[in-house]
């Protein structure tokens, strides 16, 4: 059974030869040899069963059949080029929806959002915040920022960005701030400590990493989310446990103090992208995030 359409490559070659009325010029435009162009035209004429060009002196011109085919091919390829351009433009304009923890969005991302939009103007970034369990496979989400430890799932492309470090912080406004200065970390075992219900093991993990007995930790006021916990610390309500990344700006400005430093948790802040998603925009965002994190 004969094919309904000839080779698209042969038709593309024919379009160039017909427009330029020259096999040599068409070969130069298409970056192929003169012989390759001639071969495609010959195969196309054999498949259609008609001559498409006549020789005129040292040149060529379209036959009536060639003129008829040129009109149809030119129109078809123009429509294809227009459609491909529209599809490409719509893909570039489609929003890149990034899901991330609300505390990370408020305390690190938003202060740097203007710079990101300036440096990655084509990304068309949209943000979705959550303080609960985040599902990187949620439909409609292009990528998700997560604190997690490897191994990574096979159905996700994961871009590690920075290790997570946590430590105790408090405000200079805290009533007992002066008494905590120049004291060993063990002094916190006597202090009712602010904590968050979204990460109840944070103080225990810090105590273990700091060589302290986690059983002696005294939990004080609790808060539902990390964002509220940090606001409480900034207000001078007590000592909180926090990721270094989320308090870096407050430490630099002197709004919070961290005299005992920070310890690694084994988690990585990473950009999680479903493997089925296009990766170019995600890689660009991951590189930007890594650079911004290193600069802090």
UniProtKB/TrEMBL annotation:
<comment type="similarity">
    <text>Belongs to the LysR transcriptional regulatory family.</text>
</comment>
<dbReference type="Pfam" id="PF03466">
    <property type="entry name" value="LysR_substrate"/>
</dbReference>
<dbReference type="InterPro" id="IPR000847">
    <property type="entry name" value="LysR_HTH_N"/>
</dbReference>
<protein>
    <submittedName>
        <fullName>DNA-binding transcriptional regulator, LysR family</fullName>
    </submittedName>
</protein>
<keyword id="KW-0804">Transcription</keyword>
<dbReference type="GO" id="GO:0043565">
    <property type="term" value="F:sequence-specific DNA binding"/>
</dbReference>
<dbReference type="InterPro" id="IPR036390">
    <property type="entry name" value="WH_DNA-bd_sf"/>
</dbReference>
<dbReference type="InterPro" id="IPR058163">
    <property type="entry name" value="LysR-type_TF_proteobact-type"/>
</dbReference>
<dbReference type="InterPro" id="IPR036388">
    <property type="entry name" value="WH-like_DNA-bd_sf"/>
</dbReference>
<keyword id="KW-0238">DNA-binding</keyword>
<dbReference type="GO" id="GO:0006351">
    <property type="term" value="P:DNA-templated transcription"/>
</dbReference>
<keyword id="KW-0805">Transcription regulation</keyword>
<dbReference type="InterPro" id="IPR005119">
    <property type="entry name" value="LysR_subst-bd"/>
</dbReference>
<dbReference type="GO" id="GO:0003700">
    <property type="term" value="F:DNA-binding transcription factor activity"/>
</dbReference>
<dbReference type="Pfam" id="PF00126">
    <property type="entry name" value="HTH_1"/>
</dbReference>
<feature type="domain" description="HTH lysR-type">
    <location>
        <begin position="6"/>
        <end position="63"/>
    </location>
</feature>
